Amino acid sequence: MIDFLIIGGGIAGLSAGARLSEHGSVTVLEAEDALGYHASGRSAALFEEGYGPPSVVALNKASAEFFFTNDYLTPRGLMLLAKSDQAEQFRKDLSELGMTEISVADAMVHVPVLNPETVAYAALSEGAYDIDTDRVLQDFARTIRANAGSVLTRQKVTRIRKDGNWLVEAADVFQARTIVNSAGAWADEVARMAGIAPIGITPRRRSMARLPAPGGHDVKNWPMMLGAGETWYAKPDAGKLLVSPSEADPVEPHDAYADDMVLAEGLARYEEMVNSPVTRVETNWAGLRSFAPDGTLVLGPDPSDESFVWSAGQGGYGFQTAPAASRLVADLALGRAPELDAAMVSALAVSRLR
Ligand SMILES: Cc1cc2nc3c(=O)[nH]c(=O)nc-3n(C[C@H](O)[C@H](O)[C@H](O)COP(=O)(O)OP(=O)(O)OC[C@H]3O[C@@H](n4cnc5c(N)ncnc54)[C@H](O)[C@@H]3O)c2cc1C
Fold first, then answer.
1. pLDDT for residue 208
2. HEC string of 132-183?
3. What is the mean pLDDT of residues 276-285?
4. How many angstroms is it from 241 CA to the middle of ligand 1?
5. pLDDT over 90, % of the chain
6. β-pairing verdict for 100-102 and 128-131
7. Does 204 contact ligand 1 (Cβ within 6 A)?
8. Ligand 1, closest atom to CA 47?
9. Average pLDDT of 125-144?
10. Which pLDDT score is estimated for 51?
């Protein structure tokens, strides 16, 4: 009998599994051949404390210490850029993200390819970091194994029944006291299988293109650039530049791929702000950012059955919130008083959606 059966081997499942493995037996079931195959392997890997709605910001803040003490972060910086007709949106983003306005000339010191004829406003935040997402995932998996837990791939859950305890059918059959639903875009599907009401998760596609470094520049120390209103972003990555159209198109859960037209339009929005044309896309991909109806995470036991615990709706914040979100999931699953403020716990609870 397993104490905690975790469905989903992305950041949500592995982080919750690592926390819970200190207190009971844990098995993680992942449908694919590899951990982090879906959203968790396709993110932009950014930690920006001020990014997201208030309950996400609370989780970001509560996660910072874990990331810093374990050396998962490298300074990146974030630069907000806007055209002359985007002044209102620029001011809104500036205050929400707590950034400092700088002159376009100063912005060009950081990113020499900016086009001063189109960039009218710029702001900078030093508080944005690259997360070593691969190491975070592997370390959580290692913690589970070190605590005698199992992390199993090629185990797609196809049937869930309850007969006192949970009976979960995948490639093998598992018996568990508690299920943790961390199936990302498939979280509602897993809930339905278990006879639990869905919460209205919407997977939203976000595409990404990898370009050669513009003009042959060394982009290593450039900040991530963000178009006002989150209309595009660009981020240095291993000597190349990742550019995203920042779309949030609702789709069915699936193995996501980039939409060519959406990508081309996003690249055009980026290209307008620089004086180095996009000559070649080396590769592209897309991932699903899965949101609850109110856009924030869904963490904790289901009110209809406390042995079914949610860790879903990670949206575009699944990595930066993972240390605190997984601690909260574990606290609630174990019946312990959460460390997080009560108002935030309610804002993240399943009951708010019912
Ligand atoms: C382009 C992009 C950029 C992003 N940038 C950032 C960023 O900069 N910072 C940040 O913090 N976040 C970012 N995110 C968001 C982050 O990647 C996600 O929030 C996070 O990865 C979600 O993790 P997850 O474990 O919930 O989902 P997933 O990683 O999708 O994991 C869910 C897993 O469940 C498995 N599964 C589903 N159904 C079953 C089943 N029946 N049986 C067994 N297994 C099942 C799936 O195979 C999958 O592997 C970004 C996302 C995208 C797409």
1. 97
2. CHHHHHHHHHHHHHHCCCEEECCCCCCEEEEECEEEEECCCEEEEEEEEECC
3. 96
4. 22
5. 99
6. unpaired
7. no
8. 9
9. 97
10. 94
Q: How far is CA 219 from the centre of its chain?
A: 24
Average pLDDT estimate for 134-141: 98
pLDDT tens readout for residues 3-13: 999 999 999 99
Cβ of 157 closer than 6 Å to ligand 1, yes or no, is yes
For 68, other C-beta atoms within 10 Å of its C-beta total 12
3-state secondary structure of 124: strand
At residue 15, the pLDDT reads 99
CA 38 to ligand 1 centroid distance, Å: 5
Q: Is the CB of 317 under 6 A from ligand 1?
A: yes
pLDDT score recorded for residue 251: 98
The residue-averaged pLDDT of 36-40 equals 98
Amino acid at 312: A
* Cα 199 to the center of its chain, rounded Å: 19
Q: Report yes or no: 320 and 60 within 8 Å, Cβ to Cβ.
A: yes
What is the torsion angle, in degrees rounded to the nearest 10, for the CA atoms of residue 109, residue 111, residue 115 and residue 118? -100
Task: Report CA-CA distances (Å) from 198 to 141, 147, 193, 254, 284.
Answer: 28, 32, 10, 18, 32
How many whole angstroms separate alpha carbon 72 and alpha carbon 64?
10
Q: What is the pLDDT of residues 83-99, one digit of tens each?
A: 999 999 999 999 999 99
Q: Which residues pair with 27 in a beta bridge?
A: 5, 150
The model's pTM: 0.97
Task: Give the end-to-end CA distance of the chain in Å, rounded to a whole number.
Answer: 31
